[in-house]
Design a protein that fits this description.
This protein is of the alpha/beta class. It has a domain of 164 residues: P-loop containing nucleotide triphosphate hydrolases (Rossmann fold). It is 33% helix and 26% strand. The protein has eight helices and ten strands. The longest helix has 18 residues. The protein binds adenosine-5'-triphosphate.
Amino acid sequence: MTTANPAVCFKSVHFSKEGTHILRNVTGVFPKGQITTVVGPSGAGKTTLFKLCNGLDSPNDGDIFIHDSSISSYNPVELRRNVGIALQKATMISGTVEKNLALPLQLQGKTLSDERAGELLDIAGLDASFLDRDVKDLSGGQRQKLSIARTLVNEPDILLLDEITSSLDSVSRQDVEKLITAINQDYGTTIAWITHDLQQALTIGDYTWVMMDGEVVETGESNFLIEPQSERVKQFVEGEVK
Ligand SMILES: Nc1ncnc2c1ncn2[C@@H]1O[C@H](COP(=O)(O)OP(=O)(O)OP(=O)(O)O)[C@@H](O)[C@H]1O
């Protein structure tokens, strides 16, 4: 495992909103080509961290480097082409799977070929026959796979996943875990994955961040979760901090 040449590097990042400090002095990396899992109690600032990487918000102080270039040097379209984000509640527009899949390109004035649409569904583990289905008829797991396929339309080399399996049953969860692992291995995509499931953080992650109260408390190869150095992280892992 190497943390040199990271895909994403945070340097002393501060972020506050409406007078509240949400992120304080966040420094750390998402190693290139690895899966980083991000855990921590509710309200720790995990989602906010991802929003900063995707340009949905900007740091008040410090900087974020995406492939060694400051995030401020990317224009929004370029940034979203590099950094894809999938959320727990995938937002869909009413209509077919194909219409939803084509959305990221449509927003750039481009079209998605049927062939490419079929390929993307195939990567996400959905049959091409799903293209004509109405999204309202999809199961939770199928919807999440479509959301991941849609994120892949731009072929991002960094993929941010925010609690994408927390509302799924265990079979669908395992399916999505396999899918993400395959995307990481087949395309070398750097993954950062927020999860509340510590077991998932440990088994899926190569590298892990523990965040609390807007700070990064401990980072390292994921198996540090078995025996954390920090007393606060120990308490969190043992379930004493919710
Ligand atoms: N737009 C906002 N204005 C003010 N406070 C905000 C805003 N967005 C988030 N916060 C606050 O920032 C803190 C961090 O929120 P965030 O959603 O990043 O945490 P989280 O670790 O992802 O939590 P969870 O695990 O519950 O999703 C919370 O206290 C939240 O209330």
